[in-house]
Amino acid sequence: METVLEVSNIGKRFKNGRGISDINFSIEKGNVFGLIGPNGAGKTTLMKAITGLLKPDTGKVKISGKNLEEDYKSAIRDVGANIGSASIYSHLTAWQNLKMIIRFYPEQPISRIDDVLKSVGLSKYKHDKVSSYSMGMVQRLGLAAALLPKPKLIILDEPANGLDIDGMLVFRNVVRQLSDEGVTFLISSHLTSELDKFCTHFGILIDGELQCIVRKDLFSAGKSIEDLYVERIGGVHVAGIC
Ligand SMILES: Nc1ncnc2c1ncn2[C@@H]1O[C@H](COP(=O)(O)OP(=O)(O)OP(=O)(O)O)[C@@H](O)[C@H]1O
């Protein structure tokens, strides 16, 4: 087993008192870790801390054994992320946006841009400005951007929001195919039934605390992550799981 992501004692408290505290978990190579929790639980904050978009108050993050704080460049090298659409410019086309991003990965040929646009079904619209895109199209572009560097770890914050049926299938297939090839995923979503289709593990984050981590293959027959989540939110312990 190869640990790709190791999160130890990560905490971040904003001035308003909100945030996350003492988060610990790790993800092994090829696993798909679904992060779920109510609005404001701290999922985005955690993902930002893991990718260095936000500096945590406590703890450390290791990616492929490299400490994010001490060795940012090489730790982040193998990561593809889509957290909000921070790196997408609406006055540029999809192709131009990816051209901006690929500059940071000189080992990737320019033809990689067309490859990833094709894999998310955006080829037809690649020369349209992002300002004319629907929310689902922007989501597809965010996924394409995350795939661009052929990362070993992909971190996606609410990637299924706004996707149509075809977009959902594309997204699901990308996750399944890449995880089969050994790519590791951390994905947050409120669409638990979607996560149920491909996640190997789930972490439930409530009020900034990681309440439990469950392995999908240890669920009792017929129980979905939504059942488990509802029970956890309701404070009911699920024997043998959490
Ligand atoms: N920059 C900030 N300054 C102050 N408070 C913040 C900041 N960023 C996030 N928060 C607060 O921290 C808490 C966690 O926010 P976060 O966005 O991480 O939650 P989330 O689980 O991703 O929520 P959602 O599911 O609604 O996207 C929220 O109460 C939010 O208001």
Automatic annotation (TrEMBL):
Gene3D superfamilies, per database record: P-loop containing nucleotide triphosphate hydrolases
Pfam families assigned to the protein according to its UniProt record, in alphabetical order: ABC_tran
Tagged with keyword Transport: yes
Keyword vocabulary terms for this entry: ATP-binding, Nucleotide-binding, Transport
Annotated ABC transporter domain residues: 5-232
GO molecular function, one term: ATP binding
Top-level division of the source organism's lineage: Bacteria
SMART domains: AAA
Similarity field: Belongs to the ABC transporter superfamily.
Annotated protein name in UniProt: ABC transporter, ATP-binding protein
